[in-house]
UniProtKB/TrEMBL annotation:
It comes from Orrella daihaiensis. This is GTPase Der. The gene is der. Belongs to the TRAFAC class TrmE-Era-EngA-EngB-Septin-like GTPase superfamily. EngA (Der) GTPase family. GTP 1 binds at residues 9-16, 56-60, 119-122. GTPase that plays an essential role in the late steps of ribosome biogenesis. Associates with the 50S ribosomal subunit. Residues 3-163 form the EngA-type G domain.
Length: 163
């Protein structure tokens, strides 16, 4: 059993940057992972001896009703359902956004374990970075910097703590 950790969030919040950091040299695709689709990117990470699967979802556009964006949103909902734990990324510099609210609503309804993660928080105080995101109703936010690495190890340790 390898826990499946799924990264969700609107475009440009840093999902792929976090994916690359978590998978590092194991960035090779897990090509034989059941249900592989081209809408998601699968990799393997490891904390100590514990391996886990990381899923980078595509863009998430819950307001789009037709075409490719609608298809991507459905794919992301399916990816959430197939997760053991979801890391929901938001952007400390861009601030809270209506798309974040839509995704949060979907995640609250999913019943999945969700860690709210405020990315791009390097150089900011933790308190200032996370303040406005409490209202998403997903518990205490974690401040991280996917590109610098700050907070990433404690985030993934908490994500995997029950496995
Ligand atoms: P995605 O669309 O959610 O996959 O986002 P990307 O990983 O492609 O990142 C979007 C942009 O944000 C890129 O220019 C990244 O370099 C930048 N970015 C990602 N993580 C951080 C971070 O921790 N701090 C800062 N300042 N920029 C970041
Ligand atoms: Mg990406």
């Amino acid at each position: 059993f390898k826990p499946v950790v799924t990264l969700v969030g609107r475009p440009n919040v840093g999902k792929s940057t976090l994916f690359n950091r978590l998978t590092r040299s194991r960035a090779a695709l897990v090509a034989d992972f059941a249900g592989l689709t081209r809408d998601r990117h699968y990799g393997e990470g490891r904390v100590g001896d514990i391996p886990f699967i990381v899923v980078d979802t595509g863009g998430f556009e819950p307001v789009a009703k037709t075409g490719i964006l609608h298809h991507m949103a459905r794919q992301t909902e399916q990816a959430i359902a197939e997760s053991d734990v979801v890391i929901f990324l938001v952007d400390a510099r861009a601030g809270l956004n209506a798309h974040d609210q839509d995704i949060a609503s979907l995640l609250r309804k999913s019943g999945q374990k969700v860690l709210l993660c405020v990315n791009k928080a390097e150089g900011m105080s933790h308190t200032a970075a996370v303040a406005e995101f409490h209202e998403l109703g997903l518990g205490e936010p974690h401040a991280i910097s996917a590109s610098h690495g700050d907070g990433v190890m404690s985030l993934i340790e908490e994500a995997l703590s029950s496995f």
